[in-house]
Structure formats: structure tokens, C-alpha cells
Write a structure and sequence with these properties.
Elements: H1 2-17, E1 32-37, E2 43-47, E3 57-62, E4 68-75, E5 78-84, E6 87-92, E7 95-99, E8 105-109, E9 121-126, E10 132-136, E11 145-149, E12 156-161, E13 170-176, E14 180-185, E15 191-195, E16 201-205, E17 211-216, E18 222-226, E19 231-236, E20 239-244, E21 254-255, E22 261-266, E23 271-276
Antiparallel strand pairs: 1-2, 2-3, 3-4, 5-6, 6-7, 7-8, 9-10, 10-11, 11-12, 13-14, 14-15, 15-16, 17-18, 18-19, 19-20, 21-22, 22-23
The protein binds calcium ion (2 copies).
The site of one calcium ion (CA) has 8 residues, from loops.
Amino acid sequence: MKKTLLVLALLQTLTAYAKDPLPEKITGLKMPESVVQAKDGSIYISEIGERDKNGDGQISKVDKKGNVTIFAKGLDDPKGLTLIGDKLYVADKTRIVEIKKDGTWQVYAAATAFPKMPVFLNDLEADKLGNLYVSDSNDLKSGGSIYKIAKGGTPVTLVVDSKNPDIQAPNGLLFEGRNNLLAIDFESGILHRVNLSTGATTKLAEGFGGGDGLVKTKTGKIIISSWKTGTINEVVAGKARVIKEGYKSAADIALSTDGTFLMVPDMVAGELDFIEIK
Ligand SMILES: [Ca+2]
Ligand SMILES: [Ca+2]
């Protein structure tokens, strides 16, 4: 009896420490840009298809067993993804699209709802109240903006644009605290904190040229991908420290829901890779 209990206790300990293996790399994707994991473990990937070709964009879904299916299609150049409840929101080139759990979608915020016609909507982030924030990277060099989309899709208001010289080509966004966004600029490679009420910017770190995705780990580390250099970098004392390299173009990264791994869309390679986070 005692022996059995001991074995049981040992098994429980082993199970508690045993980690799920990382998902296997997904290949054959059509210009994957962004990724998000739902609470049920499903992973959604935005695929641009051909850039500037409308109608050929899609969202793929990877189930827990690793099966890949097309979840939604007929989009333009879908990029940033965010989940609110069981709805998936997508920054689709010049508009925001809302996708229901059956894969049917509708335009949530049309291009005409923006104060200025968007050019290259990129990353999408939600706050706890259900408002969305989206970066417009414009020509990926200058003239970019960050917008707020109120819950329900309207109104769309400007948070900050390139009248503030710190805003050139904002890409990755991360909501922080009650009233700030972190924003990585693709052109300058500088990470800023943006005050959502005033649009004021504070420089936090530099050296992330071609910066794309932005996450904060459970232990508070900030990790930024670089599309141009194909690297994944950690922010250490305001500078970039490479933690993984060798991607063709590391696009908009995301953390798994349990925070144990990072999902890396390699756009030009057409792959989704997974990296363990310690
Ligand atoms: Ca396209
Ligand atoms: Ca992006």
C-alpha cells in the first residue's frame, strides 16, 4: 500500500514537471504575418498572399493536433490579429475585419471610418475594455499613425501621427497598464511608450531596425522581432540582444496563452516557428 502511494506521488510529481513539447514548425504558408493563440489552444495565422493583391488573403487555423485548415478567406493583406472573447479581429490592409468563430467575417471598421485613409494597417492590439489600437506603417519609412477604434467599430480616432517626429513607421504595439501603448518603429528601430490621452512619446530602447512584433513575457522581458534582419531580440538595458537569428523575415511574434513559447511567423520562408521561453 505504502509503495503504491509512493509511486503515485512520484508520478504526480513527474506529470507536474513534464512540459508539453513545442508544436512542430508549420510550413507552406502564404506570406504569414501575424499569429495568435486562443484559450482552447487553437492557433490563428494571418496570410497576406500576394502583397497588394486583394481577395487572396486568408486566416489559417492550427488545431491542437497540428492540423492546418483555412479558417477564413477572401481578405486583402491581413496582418495584425487579436482575439476578444470568441471573435478574431484582423488589420486587413486598410480596414479592420471581425471574424466569428464559424469563420464568417464582416468589415468592423471600414477605411472610410478613419480620419485619414489608411495605407498599411499593421499591428492590432486590444485593451481590457474592448477598444482596439492599430498602427498604420504608411510606406514603412515615414508618415505613419496610430489609431484607436472604439468598441463597436466606431468612432476611429487618431492617437498620434508623424507630426510627432518619434512616429515614422509604427509597427508592433503592446497595451501597457491603463493608458499606454508600447510601439516599435520599423524605420527608426526605437521602442517608445505612447501616452494614449496625449499622444506623448517616451523613448525606452533602440537598435531594433525593421522592428515588427512586440511581446512581454511573464517575467517582464520585452522581446521584439526584426523583419529586416530575421532576428528575435530581447531588450536589455535599452538595447537589443539577439536571442535567435537565421529567419528570412521574422514578422509579428506572439506568446502562447500559457506564456511558455513564442510563435514566430517567418513571412518570406512561409513558415511558423516556435521558440521555448524560459
Ligand atoms: Ca493579398
Ligand atoms: Ca507587423
